Amino acid sequence: MTSSPPPGRSVLGEPGLAAALALFQQGAALSRADVAALTGWARVTVTARLERLLDAGLLLAQEERVNGRGRPATIHRLNASAGALLVADVGASGMRVARCDLAGMVEDVAELDSEIADGPDAVLATVREGWRRLLPDGEPWGAALSLPGPIAYPSGLVVDPPIMTGWNGFDARSALSRWHPGAATMVENDVNAMAVGEVAAAAEGGRHLTDLLVVKVGTGVGAGIVSGGHVIRGAAGAAGDIGHTEADVAGLREDRPPCRCGKVACVEAYAGGWALVRDARARGLEAEDLGGFLTHLVAGHPVARQLTADAGRVLGSAIATAVSLVNPEQVLVGGSLGLAGDALVAGVRERVYARSLPLATRSLRIGPSVLGHDAGVRGLAHELSRQVLLGS
């Protein structure tokens, strides 16, 4: 990869061009008259800006008849293939890297092994090598990364992560900028990225989803909150860290196991993937790691199903409190455990409907993630596309 800025992106710094191009982000097909009506710009201004974007290769134009009648009008669309975006959704024990077009649509994706506890140098080396394979020539217009811990947004600084050894205070966004000078860069919490992806997918399907709780249950446990159409990150980027709140295990457990964060009896210490592996071994089930446990779960092993259902109940008690506080219209459960059959989600439903306020659950829908393992990648690509096309 070269260090020069990607060709064409520099024009977005010219007055009005980013605003003009942003009109086309969601696949809109617009005539000059449409753009004038949406913006209030004078006809000569509209023409000048669209022509500049056409010359830069950022728009495509063709003549089409409206309703099949009259003189054909020139319709403009985003040339999504004019540039590439690179994203990496990094979890506690693996990552998905992807190359996307300028509209945020995934073109190629790869799953790579990594351990977040190995520290930023090792993890980011894996990200960079994955990106090199996906985009061997040229420079991306943007690069984005999600991490399983609190992120100061938009600076990209990792803040006191409970499970990310060696990451505290690491400036992940600066690392991306050093790799790709001139590109838009972004660093986000992994479950926030998932939430953005689910909202974007709903919009593509014609649904206006403004209040959502996404819970990721894999090796660890975390949540992403969308309220009133906005991601809730909190003052220090710690909003949604449901896995490290104290668990309500009344009627289920009497022990108070230590958590990886250093506290005891956290939700994650009962419901996280590493905790289920621990408990499975204690009950005689051979499971070297989370992958081994998931193999038993998918096969329907009764011990794995019982442990997962109980984990869902513990998680459901925590989610019930969140539902009463933020009143989402939908709760989506993702991550490798959340997507492995129905046992975890069933346990969550049981506790949420029993313990949340009736008004908050009257029309609440609880189910598995719609996008599955692609949610984080899609959310990163969607937000990065907005940054690029808005010229920020």
UniProtKB/TrEMBL annotation:
It comes from Nocardioides marmoribigeumensis. GO terms for molecular function: kinase activity. This is NBD/HSP70 family sugar kinase. Signal peptide: none annotated. Gene3D superfamilies: 3.30.420.40, Winged helix-like DNA-binding domain superfamily/Winged helix DNA-binding domain. Belongs to the ROK (NagC/XylR) family. Keywords: Kinase, Transferase. It comes from the Bacteria.
